[in-house]
Amino acid sequence: MTLSCFDLGERMLSVDETLEALAAMTPPPVATHRVSLAAAGNRILAVDAVSPVNVPQNTNAAMDGIALAWPDDAPAGDMLVDLVGDVLAGTRLTTSLALGEAVRITTGAPLPAGADTVVMSEQLADIGIPNRIRVEQPERVRRGQNVRQAGEDIACGQRALGAGTRLRPQHLGLLASLGHAEIEVFRPLRVAVFSTGDEVTAPGESLPPAGIYDTNRFSLQGLLSRLGCEVIDLGILHDDLDSMRVSLAAAAREADMVVTSGGVSVGQADWVKPALTAIGELGLWRIAMRPGRPLAFGRIHQAEGVTVPFFGLPGNPVAVMVTFLQFVQPMLRRMQGEHDWQPLRLTALAAEPLKSREGRVDFHRGIYTGDDAGQLWVRTTGRQGSGILSSMVAANCLIEIGDGRAAVEAGTPVTIQPFGDLT
Ligand code: AMP
Ligand code: MG
User: Fold this and answer.
1) Per-residue pLDDT tens for 167-221?
2) Fewer CB within a 10 Å sphere, N or C end of the chain?
3) Is 239 in the pocket of ligand 1 (CB under 6 A)?
4) Nearest Cα to 196, choosing from 260, 250, 245?
5) Residues 366, 397 contacting (CB under 8 angstroms)
6) DSSP 3-state helix, strand, coil percentages of the chain (rounded to 5)?
């Protein structure tokens, strides 16, 4: 039986249990479409890319110089070679070379039949006789050197990239090298984002006496667009049950996921939970982590039998980013078709004692460096309050202290999640 958020009750969940429950409740990936290669960056490949050609197509020269048909008897002393033609990149010679014969060749040009070795220009000396050339230091020439074999990068019929790959620049180049002008990718996810709170004020407006500028909508938009999602920015919701209910239901009609921040505690002005209960199902999760409690996850009924996943993130700006990275990100990546993504984790030595508590995972904002011996060290950015967003700005990683550890002493190993392509 899969764990559902709706029967987890009020029990405190571990981070691992939360991840497992979310994985079980992730909707299947969205539909796919064909896009031009130029528009495919950061999208997820929907099919395996199998090469219809050898890359490179021909066995070719890796250097400018001569392509030589290795003579039967390797020369002792001077090596004089007969030149029987020129092969420039983009041309090919259809005749084949006899043993000991050579052609002048440029980098990338196909080796003529019979040729198997390339000697670079710097090793050749003009001896004043047309079509004859001397190879200097022939003892340094190895048969087969400076030759790129046909198909040595990717062989015809080989699976070059697997479905589920997020396309980075090197993937785009590789797909182009196979001759693909278009490729099948998952369509972009549409994610609706709200902030909540009567005190939360849009930047650009004057700040009321008890106001705070809206931080979370902008950090969330940044995270989402770097993930390749289309952001539907729905502004700031008042702490009011009816408007929240109506706005969330409307958002779910146009989005693949709805994300809010704030209003999920159990204070008087926390309306996310009742609003969701009215239009879907909501689990309010107490997760054994810091920062990041509480987190709401649920689904909004969109149409008969169709639901849209919902995350109600905490209000504090650091907690928003940490919970997004740990919980929202894996679900979005799966919905985008990137099925086996895991955050990068490395081990570093703590450069200072780190506070934590047994029974919960602590995420500190950290700065890691490498020393001359190749050892990674990590220290915190200083004050770690969940409202101190400058800690995220100063950091280059999250320090993840597992729930089995009461404290981390200086000089002991600790797990870090280096900031990756989102942060
Ligand atoms: P809440 O859970 O709504 O009580 O929010 C917790 C804390 O986060 C409060 O201090 C809020 O003012 C703050 N907060 C909530 N939403 C935002 C936001 N969008 N930008 C900055 N701070 C926020
Ligand atoms: Mg609030």
Assistant:
1) 999 999 999 999 999 999 999 999 999 999 999 999 999 999 999 999 999 999 9
2) N
3) no
4) 260
5) yes
6) 20, 35, 45
**pTM for the whole structure:** 0.92
How many Å apart are CA 69 and CA 239, to the nearest integer?
Answer: 82
Write out the DSSP string of 331-365: HHHHHTT-TT-----EEEEESS-EE--TTSEEEEE
257: three-class secondary structure by DSSP: strand
What is the DSSP secondary-structure string of 49-92? Answer: EE-SS-BSSS-EESSSEEEE---SS--SS-EEEEEEEEE-TT--
Ligand 1 mutation target, pool 218, 236, 261, most atoms within 8 A of CB: 261
- Which ligand 1 atom is the nearest neighbour of the CA of 196? 16
pLDDT tens digits, 305-327: 899 999 999 999 999 999 999 99
Q: How many CB atoms lie within 10 A of CB 178?
A: 18
Q: How far is the CA of 215 from the centre of ligand 1 (A)?
A: 9
Q: In the block, which residue shows the tokens 């921040």?
A: 261
Nearest-5° Cα angle at 221, 217 to 222: 120
